Amino acid sequence: MQNYQSIKESLINLEKEIQEKISSIIDVEHLKELYQDILGKKGRITEILKQLKDLSPEEKKEIGIIANQLKDQLTVLFKEKQVELEKKEIQESLQKEFFDILRPIKNRVGRIHPLSQIQYEVEDIFINMGFQIMEGPEVELDEYNFGKLNFTDDHPARDMQDTFWTEEGFLLRTHTSSVQVRAMEVLKPPFKIIVPGRVFRYEETDASHENTFYQLEGMMVDKNVSTANLIYIMKTFLSTFFEKDVTVRLRPGYFPFVEPGFELDIQCLICSGKGCQVCKYSGWVELLPCGLIHPNVLKAGGIDPQIWTGFAFGMGLSRLVMMRHSIEDIRHFLSGNIRFLEQF
Amino acid sequence: MKLSLKWLNQYVDLKDIDIKELANRVTMSTCEIESIYEVFSFDKNLVIAKVLECTKHPNSDKLTICKVDDGKNVLQVLCGAENVKEGSFVVLAKIGSKLKINDETLTIEKRNIRGVDSYGMICSAKELGLDPILGDNGGILLLEELPDEIFYFANKKEKDLSKIKKSILKPGKPIEELFPYKDIVLDIDNKSITHRPDLWGHYGFARELSAIFKRKFQSFDKKPKIKEDPTLPIKKIEIRNQSALAYNGVVCTNIEIQPSPLWMRILLSAIGQKTINNVVDISNYVMYDLGQPNHAFDLNNLKSDTVICDLSKKEMEFTALDEQTYKIPAGSIIIYDGKTPVALGGIIGGMNSAIKSDTKEIFIESATFPREFIRKTISSTGIRTESARRFEKGLDPANSKMAIYRFIELLKESCPNLKVGKIQSNFTVPEKKENTIKTTIDFIQMKLGFPIKAQEIQSILQRLYFNVKIQKNNLTIKVPSFRSYYDITIPEDIVEEIGRIYGYDNIQPIAPIVEIKKPTLPYHRYFEREVKQFISSYGIFYETMNYSFAKKEDNELFGYDGIQLKNPAQKQKDRMRVSLIPGLLEQVYLNIHRYEEGGLFELDKIFIPREKKSKNLKENLPKEIKKLTIAYFTMDLKKYKNFLLPGDDERLGVVLYLRSLIENLLRYFRIEYSLKFPQKEYFFLHPKCQIEIYHKEMLLGVLGLLHPEWYKKYNFPPSKQVVLVDMDFDALFSVWDKKRASKESEYRIPSSAPKSTFDFTILMDKNESTYKVIESIKDLFSEFKEIELIDIYVGDPIPEEKKSVSYRVHCIDQKPISSERLQEMLDTVVKILNDKGYPLRM
Question: In order of start, what are the domains of chain B with their CATH numbers?
Answer without folding.
Answer: 2-36+190-213 (3.30.56), 46-177 (2.40.50.140), 236-427 (3.50.40.10), 436-506 (3.30.56.10), 523-735 (3.30.930.10), 749-835 (3.30.70.380)
